[in-house]
Structure formats: structure tokens, C-alpha cells
Design a protein that fits this description.
Elements lengths: L1 E2 L3 E8 L9 E8 L13 H5 L14 E8 L5 E13 L1 H6 L18 E11 L4 H17 L5 H9 L2 E2 L6 E4 L7 E4 L12 H9 L1 H12 L3 E6 L2 H14 L8 E3 L16 E6 L12 E5 L4 E3 L13 H13 L20 H19 L7 E5 L5 E4 L1 H8 L5 H8 L1 H10 L3 E2 L3 H8 L1 H6 L4 H19 L31 H17 L10 E2 L7 H7 L7 H15 L3 H14 L3 H13 L6 E3 L1 H16 L9 H9 L2 E6 L2 E4 L13 H27 L11 H11 L5 H30 L28 H4 L20 H20 L3 H29 L21 E10 L5 H4 L11 E8 L2 E8 L9 E6 L3 E10 L6 E9 L4 E6 L5 H15 L8 H4 L19 H18 L12 H6 L32 H8 L2 H8 L17 E4 L15 E4 L4 H8 L9 E5 L6 E4 L8 H9 L7 H18 L30 E6 L2 E8 L36 E6 L17 E3 L2 H4 L5
């Protein structure tokens, strides 16, 4: 039983709070005055009584009634029935306020007034009985206006003490003590919404198409706004939309009537269903993401930026046809020559239920079979249910449907699973429809008469639920006299006696406390699951994509593999790979492989292992991250079962060879697999208990997990406390053991075989197609990869990151989520977090041994490379690289569609000659293996080249590749073989660019034909089986070679004094002073960077660039050859980076000092992150001060430590050489700035004379560098004259600040060049070379102050 009404409120106009705008309302009286314990009084109710604002009128309006809905903090809805009438108020009372109003004599009659104020009678209830509320408030108004001899206090007290049953189809007759009689019928099932006529009215107002748009928008969580001049229509429209959504429940903001003072709620970012009076329509025009439905005009406006996903076909068309049959039955017979004389039209209430029946059928078709995708992971103490969305979409064949995907991801469906997923509960019409009427609906598709008959049957049940007793006695409620609101001498509504009303409420409350509590009879049962989804797929025919012959080929091939008939298996293998495109063949593969697993282990030889791995990879290549067809789920136990012996004690499992697939990195896949396995173990737990209790009975029929859970929930109240705790502990232990098992499984599939590489952990979404690595790991793992990016420019750092940390974090996130949802104890969860790093580390140690032994296996024999026939005068520039030529879209090479076997993909080699790019190879399909595929086009016709990631073969991993497009309508898509190193591919690209864009027209093939080109140095291919001795020998040899290359040919560089710098001249065309004995390999450099004087067109083209003109405007040099360049210019424009070979993030034209040669720049750039060496980007026109940009210096890595340890002690180390290069470069920048100090120590630029200026007039150069996000000012200082004292004059710094004299008595006498680093940014420099801890700092090596990222 529940109270019909919780509160009665009398709300009136407040003249004392009238301001410049509308007035305000105030609560005059409320009953009861104290809040109910189970239902507090809602705040702000006076706003909803007059949603358009409290206003005074010059004439009496007729009484109005509407129902507003308020939602409290607990998401419970309160229905506020507002009955409003108008009372006369004196003009003086309005103008002077209530404090100055004059009291009238009680006996004097009421004088006609000029203004009328609204007054509202409000009922607040948690029940939605709008008609009963209308009659009750109308009765109270009738007693007041007609002066009936009935006590208003008694009527209100009876109304507040009336209790009715909530559900069960009961009928209750109530009377408020005024000779009235009302019959209240409660719905049979409270889960079905009560709509009365609201749904039919909504379709009459908006039409079929518009309502379907609103329906889809509400399900896909869009913002919906209703506009109308009628408040009751707004409430009915919102109620109708919620009724159409059944069995889903709307869980976002729901305000059918929004007051004017709260219109800013429309700007909320969350979805909502809100109604607003149409007088505020102008204020809704700026809402760009709100679907606006005008009930009065019958229109729905969808903004351009909002995309509403509609129902999938054919459901959308079927729903439209069914609604048309219900709303317009005459449409079917409109074209008949002899239409029937009468057409039976349903009443408005029955038509309302017929429309709801159409939508009920729609949801039954959308969600049929959903219970087969429920995973129950806990039964006790409360059932925990999860829905396998991917499996549901995959089995229904709706993975690409945008509407259903959004619905399943929404909050409404999450609540649907929580409420209706329980296996043991009371059922309603929707459960019966999904379980028992699916076959009937499929059989009646296309038969309109049968569909209409089914709709009418469902409508009868919905009508019966709302009206269990249709032939009941009519209501008897007195109504006021017509025109009573126009009476001139109407007294105001009297003040009620609080004591009388409270006494009635107290008496009724005491009586209820002594009455026995009402027990709600719940008819719980096992919820039927209905037919499985497989029946739906058989009708669609998607499961029959593969013929029985293809499945037989798959079975035969697997049998040959396990029978060691490798020749027979090799013949069938191409056909098997092609058959794997079908889902049935992939399922067949998993089933056949399961037959060969004995005791969770299947040891294979090397050939068998290779065949199985290739088939598994082929199976997984077409799996999406969702794994909607369950292929990866079926292969997951198999990859830990199949293995091979590499050596005594070392076994390689299949999971180490099938890791590069996107499905393993999707945390939703792992959650679904975990829940599925937990459900199986929970089912087995209770099946074992049942077998122990029923050992004498015969074999029982297999029960599903939901059936077992339903039985357990039925028996739960009858169990003892000890038995209940035992079952809870067993279930929790089952979940905990599965969490440990899945932590191991995830480490198997996520840790790469070579853990020294982090290629697997590079997200494929972190860059464009040309720059990303071959990665399948999504942001769930690699989200923290961004931490290793260079903080200055956003480019990826070359240093590898710790793979184990990423995997541990990924598994920890998974464990936290599933264990929290499954009710695992905190102690077990903490133990898992301690255990996971140990599991990962142990597996890494195992993989190291497996990786070492796998490298000793003999390489797979590959076809011999075929050399192409060259033209007369054409010569090879670069030997062939083993590649795969992929299909480019032309049908003649694809085979299948026009008959015959496919010629592509083909395996061969790519050759680079002085004239052409040539591919020559053979098809990978052995049926046409004797054919030769040749593709070529001239290098000069190349128009576009870009890096791509491509799958060379269906059973192989994704490989790096190139896409070459020519103006001769040729396209080469090549994928490099795994034996081709990345360096070799890069060398190929560089030589291709060098030949495509020669320095001069005489470098083209037409002029160089017949000349012997310099053969490009070929990078060595990756060694297949390097031994430890060979590896160490190569490492030491390469290290010695690198160290020897750094020997300096002259003494250490000493910067000149300031007197010498002013008159020093640097050579222009000669080699720079710092030279090394061995230059870089010419094959790795770009073409000559000096523009020849004869190439006038190239120079003119570069000079016309905007950046070049801007450089010349600032006086930063001109673009010309070394012969014509002015010797007096301090800077020059270098073209060393015009092909972006030095630094990809720098422009092609760079400003460098005049004295620095281009080959020196190439060496200096290697010392900085991303090769971003210091370059000038701005120059002050008056002071000639320059602004430089730069990347941070490289930190010393493992290779650097190895080289420095093995460097000979007789000569300087690599660090010394690098430091000299940097010193000379920065010194050249300093020398390029003018001298602004005279002999007297006066700064001729700023007019400031330093008190500590030395007589020699030494001056400091100034350089502003950007190292990461922190800018630094770097000053070069000569040797100090005296120990402990350092002097330098004032220097002008852009921005208003100046340098100042520094004394530090603690400084010792230092020899050699010093660097003063003045901090200008947020962080502070740090490093081993610092002398003092304050700022500025002195150091002998500026690089020591700048660690990684500085």
C-alpha cells in the first residue's frame, strides 16, 4: 500500500518580492507541515506552479490544471498536480507591498479589483494518477467557489490519508467526504508503463516519421526539447516518449515542464528530455545540438551538426508499415473500386495500446536472443550479470549497424541488463514476447493481416494491464457552476486550520501502525531464454557463406598436417588460406584443432608447428578488436596448447607467434573472455554439488548457467547461514583463481618474443600512415607511450621503453575492473597486484631463452631472386631487396573474379637502376608458381612515394612497405620481406630520391647513359642465426670502427680572445677547422647541398620562397653560391636541409653562421634530439642580437657508455670531439654579433657603464636557446683574471631586463673556457659540471647542464 498523495500545498502570489520583472510565488500553507521520513518535501515547487513566471492579469482566467514532474537526488520522480485559479488583489496591495496594506472590515463586501493574481492548489505524489488528482483538486475548488457546506480541512485530510495498492490489478473506491466517489484501478504489472492516450496524441501531433526520429534520438542519447503552448501536452508528450522506449528506461535528465527561471539547464552537456512553453521559443534558437519538436506546429527540427542513427533495415520499413496500418486503416482500401462501407476504427485509448504494441514487437525483434549473451559471474549473495555485446552483434550480423551499437553502449541498456538479466524474477509481457513469440513474428513477416492481428492481441493485453476492470462504475465528482470564475464578489481562498488537518493525518497514521503489514505477493520464476540466436543466422544465410566442399578442404589439410603428410598439406594450403575469409571455415579450423589437443598439450615438430601457426595467423587477420564471431576466443586456449621443442628444457608455444593482432590489445575482449570462463566454472561448481547429491539418478539433461543460477536463487532463502557463507566463499575463490589465470594468459599474448624491442607497444593511432610503426596495440596499452615523446617538439623519441611496465599496467587495469565487478575481496585484489609484476618478469625470463633458441632454427627456404633484363646503357644502382608485390586493384591480376588463379601477391625483388624501378618475381600461389611477374616504370615518372604498412601474405604479420605511383598510370605496392632491415629500406628510398631529383639535368639517364655509376653500398641483410661469438665479434668491431672514426686530427680547440675575435676572418670555401679522419658514408648522405652556379632555375625557385625573402629582410644572408657570397655577411642561408634529410621538423632553408660548412652541420645535428641543432630564426635590426631555436642534447645511452669505456686514452674521446664541434658552432654565432663596448668600458648600445668593467673592454656574446619548453640564456666567458672573481659588463637583453656584474668569491681559479648558464625558464639546469648551486651557474661543458629533454 502507498499514499495517494504525500503533500497538499497552497501556493500564492508574493507581492512583497515583486521586482522589475515577474513576481514570485510563496508557499502559503502545506500539509503535513513536517516531512514524511520516507519522502522529504521537494524544494522549489513554487517555480513549477507558474512555469512562465508569476504575473498579474487584468481579467480573470478560467482555472487550469497540469502535472509537472520533479526528480529528487535519489532519481525518484514526484508528480506535482497543479490546479491554478485567479483571485482579485487590490492595486494598493500590489504597489505598497504586504507591509502597508490596509485591513478591510470583515463585514464589508469585496470590491471589484483591477488586477488578478494566480493561486495554486498542488498535490505532490509518487504515483501517477493524473485523472484522480484532477478530480480531487477540482472538488476542493468547487467546495470553495460554490460555498458548499463541506469542511475543506476534512476533504484535504481524507485525501492525504488515502492509501491504495501499487500494483496487482486491484480496484479501490475512495471518497473524500463530499458526496463524491472515485474508482482507482492499479495496473496488473507495474513494470509496464501507463500511457492512457498520450502515445496516440503524440502521433497525431507529429506524425509517424517525426516520432520515429525522436524515438531513435532518445535511444541514442541525444538532447530532445518539446515546445508547446499547453503544459499538459508537454507532460503527455514526454510521458509518451518514455512509454515507447519500454522495456528500456530513460536514465538522463527528464523535466516535462521547465520553468523560465531554469532555462539555462538547456545548455547542459548531458542528454535530456525537456518541455518548454512555446513563448520561450526564441531563446532556444541558439541551441546547436538539441532536437526540437514543436507539438503545436507538428515539426521536428534536427540541427545539421546532429546525426541521428535510425533503425536498421528492414525493421525501419516494417515499423512504418505497421504504424500506418494502425493510425490510418483506410489507407489499405483507398484504391479499391468497391471499398467496404464501414471500417472499424479503434478508440483513442485502444489505438494508443496498438501503437505501443508495434514498438513492443520492434524491441522483441531487436533484442531477441539477448539472454544467450548474458554472463552470470556471481550468483550469491546477489547475482552479477554482464552482457557480451560483441557476441550479440556478431551472431545477429549487425556489427556495422550504428543504431544498435549505440543502444547497446547506452545507459538505458545497461539498466536493462541489470534489471532484466536476473535469472529468477517476475516476468512480464516483454519477457513472454521475446521467449515465445519470436518464431511467430518471423513466420508472419510480409503478411499484413497476421501482423495486424498480432498487434491487436498485444494491445488487448496492454489495455487489460491498465484497466483490469473496464466495466466499473463511473466516477461521481461534483463540478463547479459554469462561469463561476467570473464572479465579481468572490471571497479569497480561506486559510485552513492546520490543527484539524494534522489531527486527521495523525489518526490515520496510528491506525496504519496497528494494522498488519501488507505483504506483496511476488510471482517469481525462472526467466525463459527463448530460442538461440543461431536460428536467426540460419534465416539470414550468413552462416552458409562457405560451401561444404571448402570446409572439407580445411579438415583434410589439418589431417594431413597431423599425419605428417606435408606434401599433401602444402598442395591444399593455398585453398585453405582463401577459405579462411569465411567465418564457417575459421570456426571449422578451431574445432578441428581442438580435436588434436590431448591433456591441454599438443607437441608438434617444426614443420607442423609452422603450418599451424600460419593457419592461426590467417584466422586472426580478419578478426576485429571486438572479436564478434568468437574466433579469437576459440583460439585462446589453443595458442597455449600447441608447442614445439626447441632444445632440452625449452619449449616454444604458439602464443609467441600470433601476438601481432589487434584483438589481444582490446581490454573489452579480455573482459568478455574472463566473464565467459568464470560463468563456466561457476556452472561446474554447482553441477558438481548436484552430482554428489544425486549419485543414484540417471544422467541429467545439461542445464545452462542461467538455469542453475535460477535454481540457486530459489533455494537461497532456505539455506542455513553457514551454507550461504560457504557458497559465497567458493564463488569468490573461483573468480580469484580465474583472475590469476588470465593475468598469465594476458602476459603470454602481450609480451613480445623479443622483449628488447617495444615495436608491439607502439600505438597505430599515434601518427600518420607514413610514420607509424607496425603496431596493433591500442591506446589501452600505449596510452603512456606519449611519456617517451620529446617534450619539446612532440616527435617520437628513439629510445625504447620498458615493455614490462606497459604490460603490468594493462593487466592491473583489467584486474581492477573485473575483480571489483565480481566482488573479489580487497585482500585478494592486493595480492593480485603484488603477483602480476612477478608473473610478467618470470615470463620475460622464459621468453629470453625461447628467443635465443628460436634464432638457431634453420631459415625457411625462399625462392631464388630473379634478375631483370636491363636495357642498353642501363645499369643497376642497387641490388634487389626481397619484397612482395601486392594487388593494386586491377582485376586482371586478382584472378578469382574473372576466373583463374591470382597472380598477385607475388614474391620477388625490387631493383633500382639508372633508368627504372623494376620488380621481378613469381606468384605466391603455387598453382601459378611457374609464371613470372614483372612490373617497372621509369624513375623520372615517379610522382608520389609514401610509406605504408601492409600485410604481405594472409598468414604473415604486417610489414613495412612503400607505395610508388607514376605519371604513366603505374602503381607499385610493395611490402618488404621480414629479412629486409629497416636501414636497407631507408637506403633504397634515399637512392630513389637521389635519382628522381638529380642536382642537374645532366644527371638524368639521358645524359649519363653509358657511364658507369657508383655502385651503392648495400646494407647487410639481417643474419638469421647469429651465434653469441659472432654477435660479440660484430659488436666489438662496430664499436672500434665508430670509436676510430672519431679520432681528431689536431689539438683541442681553444677559443680566441675577444681582441682576436673582432678581426678574425673565417675561410669560406675551405674545410672547417675541426675535422675527423673518416667521413660519413656518402651513401647515407643526401645529394650535394651546395647549389651550383649554373643551376639558375633552382636558385631562383628557392629565392622566391616567402621564408627566404623574410630572412633577407632581417639581414640574415642571401641564398647564393659560395663564389658569389659576400664575405662580410655574418650569416648565410644554407640548403643543407632542403630534402629534409638533416631534420624532418626544420624548414628546408636554414640560417647558419657564415664560417660553418654544411658537412659540419651534419655532424653537429647528431648531438641534438631529432637532429634539431641551433639555428637562427630572428635578428634584431638595431642591436643585431639573434634568437636561436634548438632541441635538447642527447643523453648518454648504453652505446655511448660502451664507446667511452673502450676509447683509447692517448687521444681525445668522442665526448671531447662532440664538445669541440658544439663550442666552435656556438662561438661562430657569438662572433657574428657586433661589438658594443668602447675602450672606457662604456656600453655604446645601452649607455650603461659597468663599475666592474675591465680596462681591456672585453665583451660577452649573447645567445638565447630553446631547450625543450625552457628557454635559457647562454653566455660565453673567457678565463678569469683572478681566482674567485668573474667580471662581465652589462648586455642588453630583449624584453627590458639586463645582464649584471657577478662576483663569486668561492669560485676557484679555473683554466679553459667557461660557460655561464643563466636560467630564464621554469626549471633549473642540473648536471655534473656545475660549480655553484645558485643561478647563474658556471660549468666547463654546457652539455653537462642539459640532460635528456633539456
Amino acid at each position: 500500500m502507498a499514499r495517494l498523495a504525500d503533500y497538499f500545498v497552497l501556493v500564492g502570489y508574493d507581492p512583497g518580492k515583486r521586482g522589475s520583472g515577474d513576481g514570485q510565488g510563496q508557499i502559503l500553507q502545506r500539509f503535513p507541515e513536517k516531512d514524511w521520513e520516507d519522502n522529504p518535501f521537494p524544494q522549489g515547487i513554487e517555480l513549477f506552479c507558474q512555469p512562465s513566471g508569476w504575473q498579474l492579469f487584468t481579467e480573470r482566467n478560467p482555472p487550469t490544471f497540469f502535472v509537472a514532474v520533479l526528480t529528487d537526488i535519489n532519481s525518484e520522480r514526484h508528480y506535482c498536480a497543479c490546479f491554478t485559479f485567479w483571485e482579485a488583489v487590490e492595486s494598493a496591495q500590489v504597489l505598497n507591498g504586504e507591509g502597508e496594506e490596509e485591513e478591510e472590515e470583515p463585514s464589508s463586501p469585496v470590491q471589484p479589483a483591477q488586477l488578478f493574481a494566480p493561486k495554486s492548489l498542488v498535490l505532490v505524489s509518487r504515483l501517477d494518477h493524473a485523472e484522480v488528482f484532477r478530480n480531487s483538486l477540482g472538488l476542493i475548488y468547487t467546495i470553495y467557489v460554490d460555498g458548499l457546506s463541506v469542511s475543506l480541512e476534512n476533504v484535504i485530510g481524507n485525501l492525504l490519508t488515502c492509501t491504495i495498492p501499487i500494483t496487482g490489478g486491484a480496484q479501490r473506491t475512495i471518497s473524500l467526504g463530499a458526496g463524491d466517489r472515485q474508482v482507482i484501478q492499479t495496473p496488473i504489472n507495474d513494470s509496464l508503463p501507463v500511457s492512457s492516450c498520450s502515445v496516440a496524441l503524440l502521433f497525431r501531433q507529429l506524425g509517424i516519421t517525426n516520432v520515429l526520429y525522436l524515438f531513435c534520438a532518445a535511444l541514442t542519447e541525444h538532447k530532445i526539447l518539446f515546445l508547446s503552448s499547453s503544459y499538459q501536452r508537454l507532460t503527455d508528450a514526454c510521458r509518451a516518449l518514455l512509454a515507447l522506449m519500454f522495456p528500456l528506461k530513460y536514465s538522463f535528465t527528464y523535466v516535462p515542464i521547465l520553468p523560465a527561471q531554469l532555462l539555462e539547464v538547456l545548455s547542459t552537456p548531458t542528454p535530456f528530455i525537456i518541455g518548454v512553453h512555446s513563448i520561450f521559443q526564441s531563446e532556444t534558437q541558439e541551441l546547436l545540438d538539441v532536437v526540437i519538436a514543436d507539438l503545436d506546429g507538428g515539426t521536428v527540427n534536427v540541427p545539421e551538426c546532429v546525426h541521428i542513427s535510425l533503425l536498421p533495415e528492414p525493421l525501419l520499413q516494417q515499423t512504418r508499415e505497421a504504424l500506418s496500418m494502425v493510425l490510418d486503416p483506410e489507407l489499405e482500401v483507398a484504391d479499391l473500386a468497391f471499398p467496404p462501407s464501414t471500417i472499424s476504427a479503434s478508440s483513442l485509448k485502444m489505438q494508443d495500446k496498438e501503437i505501443r504494441a508495434v514498438f513492443l514487437r520492434l524491441f522483441a525483434q531487436l533484442l531477441q536472443g539477448y539472454r544467450w549473451c548474458l554472463h552470470i559471474i556471481r550468483i550469491h549473495p546477489e547475482p552479477v550479470i554482464r552482457f557480451h555485446k560483441a557476441a550479440f552483434l556478431g551472431q545477429r550480423g549487425l556489427t556495422e549497424d550504428d543504431f544498435l551499437t549505440k543502444v547497446l553502449e547506452g545507459m538505458a541498456f545497461a539498466g536493462f541488463v541489470t534489471e532484466r538479466g536476473a535469472p529468477y524474477r517476475s516476468i512480464d509481457l516483454f519477457d513472454e514476447l521475446v521467449a515465445y513469440e519470436v518464431k511467430r513474428m518471423r513466420a508472419e513477416e510480409g503478411n499484413k493481416q497476421k501482423i495486424l492481428r498480432h498487434i491487436k492481441e498485444l494491445a488487448e493485453k496492454l489495455y487489460k494491464n491498465e484497466n483490469p476492470y473496464p466495466a466499473v462504475t463511473m466516477h461521481k465528482v461534483q463540478k463547479p457552476t459554469e462561469g463561476c470564475h467570473l464572479r465579481l464578489h468572490q471571497k479569497p481562498f480561506p486559510r485552513l486550520d492546520e490543527g484539524t488537518v494534522q489531527w486527521i493525518i495523525d489518526q490515520a497514521t496510528a491506525k496504519l501502525q496497528t494494522a498488519p503489514p501488507a505483504v506483496k505477493a511476488e510471482k517469481k520464476c525462472m526467466v525463459p531464454s527463448g530460442p538461440p540466436i543461431a536460428a536467426i543466422m540460419e534465416r539470414n544465410g550468413n552462416a552458409l557463406a562457405n560451401s561444404a566442399r571448402r570446409l572439407e578442404v580445411v579438415r583434410n589439410c589439418i589431417s594431413y598436417v597431423f599425419e605428417n603428410k606435408m606434401l599433401e598439406a602444402k598442395k591444399l594450403f593455398p585453398a585453405v588460406l582463401r577459405a579462411m575469409k569465411g567465418r564457417a571455415a575459421r570456426h571449422c579450423l578451431t574445432q578441428e584443432l581442438n580435436l588434436h589437443v590431448q591433456q591441454n598439450r599438443a607437441v608438434l615438430d617444426h614443420q607442423q608447428f609452422d603450418f599451424i601457426i600460419r593457419m592461426m595467423n590467417c584466422c586472426l587477420q580478419d578478426c576485429t578488436a571486438m572479436d564478434e564471431h568468437g574466433i579469437a576466443a576459440a583460439l585462446l586456449p589453443l595458442v597455449t596448447a600447441f608447442c614445439r621443442k626447441l632444445s632440452p628444457g625449452i619449449t616454444q608455444f604458439a602464443y609467441s607467434c600470433v601476438q601481432e593482432h589487434v584483438v589481444w590489445t582490446n581490454i573489452q575482449f579480455w573482459e568478455a573472455m574472463f566473464y565467459c570462463d568464470v560463468q563456466n566454472h561457476i556452472r561446474a561448481l554447482y553441477l558438481d554439488n548436484n552430482e554428489e547429491n544425486h549419485t543414484d539418478e540417471g544422467p541429467q539433461e545439461a542445464k545452462s548457467a542461467l538455469e542453475i543460477a535460477s535454481e540457486q536463487l530459489r533455494l537461497w532463502p532456505t539455506m542455513s547461514r553457514e551454507k550461504q557463507q560457504e557458497l559465497i566463499q567458493k564463488e569468490e575463490s573461483t573468480v580469484f583463481s580465474q583472475a590469476i589465470h588470465y593475468a598469465n594468459r594476458m602476459s603470454y599474448l602481450l609480451l613480445p618474443l623479443d622483449t628488447s624491442k617495444n615495436r608491439l607497444l607502439r600505438s597505430s593511432g599515434l601518427g600518420d600512415v607514413e610514420s607509424v610503426s607496425n603496431s596493433f596495440v591500442t591506446n589501452s596499452i600505449a596510452g603512456s607511450v606519449a611519456e617517451s615523446y620529446d617534450t619539446e617538439s612532440g616527435f617520437e623519441d628513439a629510445e625504447s621503453s620498458d615493455v614490462a611496465n606497459y604490460v603490468v599496467r594493462f593487466i592491473n587495469r583489467f584486474v581492477d575492473k573485473v575483480c571489483t565487478e565480481s566482488g573479489v575481496t580487497n585482500e585478494h585484489l592486493k595480492g593480485l597486484h603484488v603477483m602480476i609484476p612477478d608473473i610478467v618478469q618470470m615470463h620475460i625470463e622464459t621468453l629470453d631463452a625461447v628467443h635465443r633458441e628460436s634464432k638457431r632454427l634453420p631459415p625457411i627456404q625462399k625462392p631464388k631472386l630473379l634478375r631483370p633484363n636491363l636495357l642498353v646503357g642501363e645499369e643497376c644502382v642497387m641490388e634487389g631487396l626481397r619484397v612482395y608485390l601486392m594487388p593494386d586493384g586491377r582485376e586482371e591480376a586478382a584472378g578469382g573474379n574473372i576466373g583463374g588463379p591470382p597472380l598477385l601477391p607475388a614474391e620477388g625483388a625490387i631493383f633500382l637502376t639508372t633508368y627504372r624501378i623494376i620488380f621481378k618475381g613469381t606468384p605466391t600461389d603455387p598453382l601459378v608458381g611457374e609464371q613470372v611477374v614483372i612490373r617497372s616504370f621509369p624513375i623520372a615518372s615517379l610522382t608520389k612515394e609514401k610509406k605504408i604498412n601492409i600485410q604481405a601474405q594472409v598468414d604473415q604479420f604486417i610489414q613495412e612497405g612503400l607505395q610508388l605511383r607514376s605519371c604513366t598510370f603505374q602503381l607499385l605496392k610493395i611490402a618488404f620481406d621480414e629479412e629486409v632491415a629497416s636501414d636497407s629500406a631507408e637506403v633504397f628510398r634515399k637512392h630513389l630520391h637521389k635519382l628522381r631529383y638529380p642536382q642537374h639535368v645532366r644527371g638524368t639517364f639521358a645524359f649519363t647513359v653509358g657511364q658507369s655509376p657508383k655502385q651503392a653500398m648495400q646494407p647487410k641483410a639481417k643474419e638469421k642465426n647469429p651465434s653469441l661469438r659472432t654477435l660479440s665479434k660484430n659488436l666489438v668491431k662496430n664499436a672500434k670502427k665508430t670509436i676510430g672514426r672519431q679520432y681528431v686530427t689536431r689539438k683541442k680547440y681553444t677559443p680566441p680572445t675577444w681582441e682576436q675575435r673582432s678581426s678574425q676572418h673565417f675561410p669560406e670555401d675551405n674545410e672547417d677547422e675541426i675535422s675527423v679522419s673518416e667521413e660519413m658514408d656518402r651513401s647515407t648522405l643526401t645529394p650535394t647541398t651546395t647549389i651550383k652556379p649554373s643551376d639558375k632555375m633552382t636558385i631562383n625557385h628557392l629565392v622566391e620562397r616567402a621564408c627566404c625573402r623574410d630572412y633577407q629582410r632581417m639581414g640574415l644572408g642571401t641564398l647564393s653560391s659560395s663564389l658569389t657570397r659576400s664575405k662580410n655577411e655574418p650569416f648565410r642561408i644554407s640548403t643543407v636541409n632542403r630534402m629534409y634529410a638533416i631534420c624532418r621538423s626544420y624548414p628546408g632553408l636554414l640560417i647558419v653562421p657564415q664560417s660553418i660548412q654544411d658537412n659540419t652541420i651534419q655532424r653537429i645535428s647528431r648531438c641534438y634530439r631529432q637532429n634539431r641543432f641551433p639555428v637562427v630564426c630572428w635578428r634584431n635590426s638595431r642591436t643585431k642580437a639573434v634568437l636561436l631555436r634548438s632541441g635538447g642534447l642527447h643523453g648518454k645511452g648504453v652505446v655511448g657508455l660502451f664507446k667511452s669505456q673502450n676509447a683509447p686514452t692517448a687521444g681525445p674521446s668522442q665526448t671531447d670531439s662532440t664538445s669541440l664541434e658544439q663550442e666552435k658552432y656556438l662561438q661562430a654565432v657569438i662572433n657574428s654579433m657586433p661589438h658594443y663596448a668602447d675602450a672606457s668600458g662604456r656600453n655604446t648600445l645601452s649607455g650603461f657603464t659597468s663599475a666592474h668593467m675591465s680596462s681591456s673592454g672585453e665583451e660577452f656574446g649573447l645567445v638565447l636557446m630553446c631547450a625543450g619548453p625552457q628557454p635559457w640564456v647562454v653566455l660565453s666567458v673567457p678565463e678569469p683574471r683572478q681566482p674567485g672573481e668573474l667580471l662581465f659588463p652589462a648586455s642588453h637583453i630583449r624584453g627590458g631586463s639586463r645582464a649584471f656584474p657577478v662576483r663569486s668569491p668561492e669560485l676557484p681559479a679555473l683554466a679553459g673556457p667557461l660557460w655561464l648558464v643563466v636560467e630564464m625558464g621554469f626549471g633549473k639546469p642540473s648536471g655534473p659540471g656545475a660549480v655553484s648551486t645558485g643561478s647563474p651557474r658556471l660549468c666547463s661543458d654546457p652539455g653537462a647542464h642539459w640532460g635528456p629533454g633539456r
